[in-house]
Design goal:
The complex is a heterodimer.
Chain A (H helix, E strand, L loop, with lengths): L1 E2 L11 H12 L2 E5 L3 H6 L7 H27 L1 E2 L9 E6 L7 H16 L6 E6 L2 E7 L2 H9 L10 H11 L4 E6 L9 E4 L7 E11 L2 E10 L5 E9 L2 E10 L4 E7 L3 H4 L3 E8 L9 E6 L5 E7 L5 H12 L3 E7 L3 H8 L4 E5 L10 E6 L7 E13 L15 E8 L3 E5 L2 E9 L2 E6 L15 H14 L9 E3 L3 E3 L11 E7 L2 E7 L7 E3 L4 E7 L2 E8 L28 H21 L4
Parallel strand pairs in A: 4-5, 4-7, 7-8, 16-17, 16-18, 18-19, 19-24, 25-31
Antiparallel strand pairs in A: 1-3, 5-6, 9-10, 10-13, 11-12, 11-14, 14-15, 20-21, 20-22, 22-23, 23-24, 26-29, 27-28, 27-30, 30-31
Helix pairs in contact in A: 1-3, 3-11, 4-5, 8-10
Chain B lengths: L4 H8 L1 E3 L10 E20 L11 H7 L3 E9 L2 E7 L11 H18 L3 E7 L3 E8 L5 H9 L9 H4 L11 E7 L7 H10 L3 E8 L1 H4 L5 E7 L5 E6 L1 H24 L3 E6 L4 H11 L3 E3 L1
The chains are: A alpha/beta, B alpha/beta.
Amino acid sequence: VTFTHPQALWLLALAAPIVLAHLYRGRVRLLEVPALFLWEQVMPAEDLRHGFRRLRHLAGLLVALAALAVLTSAVADPTVKGITRDPRRFALVIDSSPEMTPDRLAEAKDRAREILARLGRRDAAAILDGGGVVEPSTSDRDRRDRAVKRIPRTRGALAPQALLEEARAAAPGAELIVLSCRPWPAGVPTLIPIGAPKANGAVVDARIGIEAGRHVIRASAVNLSDAAMDARLDVWNRGQSLRSDALRLAPRERREVSYQLEPNVTNERFAALEVRLRAGDPRPEDDAAGFIIPSTKPIVVVLVAEKDPDQHLLAALDLQEQTRVIKVEPVVAAQVEAVRSRLGKSAVYIFDRVAPPKPLSDGGYLIIGADGPAARTRALDGVKIVDWDRDSPLHRYVDYADVKAGRAWALKGDALVTSDRGPVAVWGRRQGLAWIQFGFSFGVETGDFALTPSFPVFLRNAIQWLAEEGRRAFPGSARAGETLANAAPLADPDAELKVTEVQGSATKTSSALAPGGEARVAVSQPGLLKIEAGTQVEWVGVAGAAPVDLSTLPKAAGTLPDPIPWWRDLPWVLVAGAIVIVLLAIEWILYQRGWI
Amino acid sequence: MAFGPEFIRTLDALNLLARRLLAGEDRADRPTPRRGASLEFADYRRYTPGDEIRYIDWNVYARHGSLFVKEFAAEENIHVSITLDASASMAYGKAPKFEAARELAAALGYIALANFDSVSVFSLAESLRVAVRRLRGKRSVFPLLGALESIVPAGKTDFKAAFAAPLMRIKGRSLAILLSDFCDPTGYPQAIRSLQSQGHQVHLIHVVAREELDPPDRGPYKLVDLETGARRSISMSPATIERYRARFRAYCDELERFSTEHELYYARVRSDEPLDRQVRDILRRGGILERK
């Protein structure tokens, strides 16, 4: 026997005063009466038998002690092996991945509620969804039900294995129950399949590449059902049909398709491509893929210098210009405003030892060895680079090891490159604006960065980032079922977001809020997404959710927890309370009847 | 034992009620079966020589031609015999029943003496003993109180033995007042019938103690009979106590029913109540006391 609250056993000490009170109350007292004849007529016959009377008197004590014992056990909450039921522990994983359509999620929630209803009062269960723990292990039924109710569709997308590990961590030793429509790795004790097999066609493995100087889309159209499927495969560019082919897919056929883009599609401006399989199946979330392809037009790079630009910088830019990736336009500082009004915000500006005009407006800016948006704190000499932000897209294939910066200004801001005496290059961005500021120039008199092989690579990375990705608030690609969040601050934090879902020629517009400048845009369908925030417009290519071959629905595994009979789930406190009341009632009846 | 002036005034205004015509020894205010010299006309009878001429009713003579003389009722006192139960059971109670009975006996005795009746006091236990005999007049109050003070409760109640002989050979018939707790259920009927057969008019005053009505609550007790010393063990429970109360009420009712059946006057007083209240209760109940 073990007790949940063993300290309650001290209540048994009350037995001593009960016994003493019993002995005191039970002592025989002399009572003088005028005559016995009236008493003899009302005396129960048993009173005349001394031994029996003592026994009955003892019964009163036994009832009181039994009531005390039951009361103590009610507070101490005993666990008796073989008699009381050990509390069970479960971790309920409700798959909320994009594959779980609303009806499947609703079915999963219903099944989850059924399972939770089988649990006893002391059983505990943790609730998890695709994003992790929703409710830690608890025996509170209301909290569990609320947790199941509030599971949103497509919250997070943890891999099954990771989710299982999180479930085991959330409820160690608990029995895992997974409700899902997709296959799960081995080792799930109880797997409850959700959903029923339905015909499904999908676009899978869609990708875009450049072959022989032209963009090529490659994708696979698959029929994941057991019947032949008639479908059409359409290619769209921002609502304009580029191609439409009829496809007859045999059962379980996977057919590779490719499409070579005409150069004019991306010559002048970016392309927003959509590959869509019109299969007429009930699962549209895996029927399309969207891509954003930047314009193939060279990026205009305006090199601003006081007089002559740095020769090494110029040489590196020339090299890129020869590959027609960029087009360099050197200007002197005095002409910057005129050039800006001519080229607009599409160009990337490099200020070589010249400070840009303040404040910086929309566009991409690389400021080298001059004052800029970041404050210069102190001048340094003999600076050596010791660290750099290796996760930055600017540092792809870039290595600053043993690079000497020479004379430099220490800068304040998000460090991009750090010297032995503080950050010497910082960067920043918001929607429509991206900038990089170096506290040292690239001249070779005191430093050697321009002489390293990383220098042209960095320049290419920087120009690409400043021209495209750096100015975006939202990622350029997403997957159906995700929720898009802005990675960079919005240009206008108070602006209402206008979200347009583009599917072929059809559009659906909705609005979203960005409280505190943090936008959350739910992506439900694959294709294209156009997000407008004030004057800023961003396109997002949305890939379809992972298709589900419904013939591979998980096979049910394990058994559901046994339901607990109501009488076995009664709280011991209630049972004990009832027993005490019955005992007290018995004592009262015995007392009233003169038995004790 | 002392009465206050107010209480004495109350007693002076009372008289003991005797429904039967009882003959006394001295002239007083109570009507008797005898012929006497009171102002109350009783009957006619034929004139016989020697009769007082002034009692001849000449109107009757004028009508019938025969001589008749008028007879008048005699007015005498009566004899009041007060029997005080002095058994050990009367000592029961926080306010002992005996004390209450003794004070009540004194009050009744005073009323009798104040009305020119003669008073005898007897103590009752295993036998009947004379405490004082034939006191007359208010001056006899102090001998009466002295006699009552001298009585001490002891012994067993035995109505049969006590009333086996005529009530101490009292001449004539008396108003017999019996103050007792009647803890002899088999003895008192025979004794009272015996008194009635001797021509006494009997008043019963049942004295009970509060503790008899409300016995102690719950627990094992050894009951001790005050008169016999016999012992009985009992577990007091609400049920037992309730049964006892019912039985006690039934016993009182039996006594009252017996009184009604035998044309006795019955009153029950509680020993813890003040004497004036007891007297008022007896007066209100009627049959024993009356206002003059």
